[in-house]
Each structure stands twice: as structure tokens, then as C-alpha cells.
Amino acid sequence: MMKKTVSRKRKKAEASKRIALKSTVRRSPKSARVEHLSWDKVELEVLNPLLHRQLIVGQEIMLARILLKKGCVVPWHSHVNEQVSSILEGALKFWIDGKEIVVGPGEVLTIPANMPHKAEALEDTLAIDVFNPPRADWINKTDSYLRQ
């Protein structure tokens, strides 16, 4: 009789451990899916005559292809999103953390969340920006600071 009691207690303890472990594993939402996209097929959004962008939005990350004409200024702003900016063509001058940083082709700038920054295209520029989490203001088109 004692063995059955120990056995039941052990099984119950092991089951509760499994439940606890399952709750720490993040499950992907059912709507998550694999997508294979071409930039040629992604909507090109014209924010102003000097600034165009394309967005690909995932569950927890957003990829933006940004085309800036020479002289385009992205005014001072900050956001809760971490940002990684990679310059493919051209050059952007950033004002950030009390510094001026010029980022050119093949270079990357990481911007922590809530860090105020500003940028100017020193020449026609193609950049890829990654945001985590996705920028709700860009998705909802409430980013009026870019639409001037």
C-alpha cells in the first residue's frame, strides 16, 4: 500500500513539473506562417517627396526598406522599439547620444529603445531598418512627424 501512495505522489509531482515547464515555453500564435516575399511586390508608401518606405511585419519584428533622397531629414524622435539600421547605398548622418555619426554602405547602427535621434540623407540612400517590437505608429500610419 505504501508503494502506491509514493508512486501516486511522485507521478503528481512529475506532472506538475511538466506543467510548469510547459508554461515557460513560448508558443507561436496560430496565425504565424512562413512567407517568401519580393520587395517588388511590397507596397511602396510615399511619406513625403523625399521619403518612401516598404514594410514587412512579423509577429515580433518589423523590417523596413527605406528610400531617402539627398537632403531628406528624419526629425528628432524616439520610440520604445529597439532599432538596427543598415545602409545598403548612400549615407545617413545620425545625431544620437550627443554625437554625429555618418553611416555608409555596409555599415550598421544599433539604436536602443527610447534613445532620441535624428537623421539626414547626405546622398540618395537605401537603408534597411529592423524594429523590435514592430512600430505600431508606422503600421497604423500615425507617424505624422515623417509625413511633412
Rounded mean pLDDT is 87
- How many strands, which pairing sense, and closed or not: the largest β-sheet? 6 strands, antiparallel
Name of the CATH architecture: Sandwich
CATH first level: Mainly Beta
Strand order of the largest sheet: 1-2-3-10-5-8
Task: Look at the helices and sheets and give the structural class.
Answer: alpha+beta
| CATH topology descriptor | Jelly Rolls
Q: Supply the CATH superfamily name.
A: Jelly Rolls
Question: Which runs of at least 5 residues are low in confidence (pLDDT < 50)?
Answer: 16-28
Radius of gyration, CA atoms, in whole angstroms? 23 Å
What separation lies between the terminal Cα atoms? 80 Å
Helix content: 10-25%
**How many E-type strands?**
10
- Per the principal axes of the C-alpha atoms, what is the gross shape? globular
Total of DSSP H or I helical runs spanning 4+ residues: 2
Q: What string, H for helix and E for strand, traces the elements in order?
A: HEEEEEEEEEEH
**Strand proportion:** 35-45%
* Domains (count): 1
Describe the protein's topology.
Blueprint: H1 2-24, E1 45-48, E2 51-57, E3 62-68, E4 73-77, E5 82-89, E6 92-96, E7 99-103, E8 108-111, E9 117-121, E10 125-132, H2 136-139
Antiparallel strand pairs: 1-2, 2-3, 3-10, 4-9, 5-8, 5-10, 6-7, 6-9
Descriptive report:
The chain is of the alpha+beta class. It has a single domain (39-146), classed as Sandwich (Jelly Rolls). Helices cover 18% and strands 39% of the residues. It contains two helices and ten strands. It has helices at residues 2-24, 136-139; strands at residues 45-48, 51-57, 62-68, 73-77, 82-89, 92-96, 99-103, 108-111, 117-121, 125-132. The protein has a six-stranded antiparallel beta sheet, with no helix packed on it. It has a four-stranded antiparallel beta sheet with strand order 4-9-6-7, with no helix packed on it. The longest helix has 23 residues, at 2-24. It is globular and about 70 Å long. The protein starts with a helix and ends in a 9-residue tail after the last helix. Mean pLDDT is 87; it is low at 16-28.
